[in-house]
Amino acid sequence: MSQDWQRQPERSNPLMLRLLLWIARALGRRVARGLLVPIVGYFLLTGGAARQASRNYLRRILGREPGWRDIARHFHAFASVSLDRFFLLAGDTRDFDIRIDRPQTVYDLSQSRRGCLLLLAHLGSFEVFRVHGIDDRGLPLRILMDTAHNRMFMSVLRRLNPRLMEAVIDAGQGGPTLVLALKQALDEGSMIGMMSDRHRGGERVVEVDFLGARARLPASPWILAGTLGVPVILAFGLYRGGNRYDVHFELVPGPLALPRANREQALREHAQRYADRMQHHLRGAPYNWFNFYDYWQT
Fold it and tell me: Which of 159, 161, 152 is closest to 22 using CA atoms?
């Protein structure tokens, strides 16, 4: 169903998360990464739905029938990025090799302090953007997210970096309250990071071609950009294995007009370009896709 990702139960518990957090902080990243093998094995054996979703995706991106080793590699990449969230959110980047690909147009826009949208995806890591933007560069970056989803994990992350969590705009408030909060942040010159590869139940969607089939993306990023006349930056934080992340920024040519005469066509074109860019980056980093549900609604 369209909101399968919202209905997935949290397959962990507060004790396990706190234990992993303690190991990560007390013993370091290298020791903590050693625990990923049994953790991945557990979820590989017990996560039937996620395993099937991984197989369906890998079949599309690899162009062949994936084996258990492919799925295990996919799960391990997700587990590695999830573990690194603890370190990145705590501001501990000493053991990471983060390489930034930022065109001059994106740099100039970030320095202008003009409000804009930063479109993210469940593709690699999005924590590298938060840490790089807020802690390292002092940029007015706000993150739009549903704080009610994955409550256990969010409760642990709040302990790591209160300053960063203060930058969150709760997407769960919805309606006019959310729109006003977004407009105020944009008027203040903030970058608003928003996940743009998943849609919520009841949300307006746009159908696109993605990895050989039809998929649905949320229309809200493009409606918001077109209505408020703000620039849009695409951001992808690709995990390359080990301690390396490659961060790519791309400025969407603008302004993103939504003419009344062909509004639906314009929405589809904007969303399709975004899907094309996701597909482009996934071709070079196929195990970075972290939507473990029936994304194409097969």
Answer: 159
Confidence category of residue 14, pLDDT binned at 50, 70, 90: low
Are the C-beta atoms of residues 93 and 99 closer than 8 Å to each other? no
The pTM (predicted TM-score) of the whole model is: 0.88
Q: How far is CA 231 from the centre of its chain?
A: 19
User: In a 3-state reduction of DSSP, which class is residue 232?
Assistant: strand
Give the distance, in angstroms, between the CA of residue 275 and the centroid of all CA atoms in the same chain: 14
Determine the straight-line distance between the first and last CA of the chain, rounded to whole angstroms.
9
Q: Name the token pair of 240.
A: 């390359």
**Concatenated DSSP letters for 63-106?**
SS---HHHHHHHHHHHHHHHHHHHHHHTT--TT-EEEEE--HHH
> Who contacts 79 (Cβ-Cβ below 8 Å, separation ≥6)?
36, 39, 40, 43
How many angstroms separate the CA atoms of 6 and 201, rounded?
A: 8
Instruction: Kindly tell me if the per-residue pLDDT of 1 is higher than 60.
Output: no
Token pair for 23: 């190991």
Tens of pLDDT, residue by residue over 60-100, are 999 999 999 999 999 999 999 988 988 888 778 888 999 98
Q: In this structure, are residues 186 and 228 in contact, taking their beta carbons and an 8 Å threshold?
A: yes
φ, ψ for residue 218 (rounded to 5)?
Answer: -65, 140
Q: Which of 172, 200, 225 is nearest to 5 (CA)?
A: 200
Listed residue (146, 154, 147) closest to 201, CA to CA:
146
CA distance 111 to 117: 14
Q: What is the pLDDT of residue 2?
A: 43
Helices (H) and strands (E) in the chain, counts: 13, 9
d(CA 235, CA 250): 6
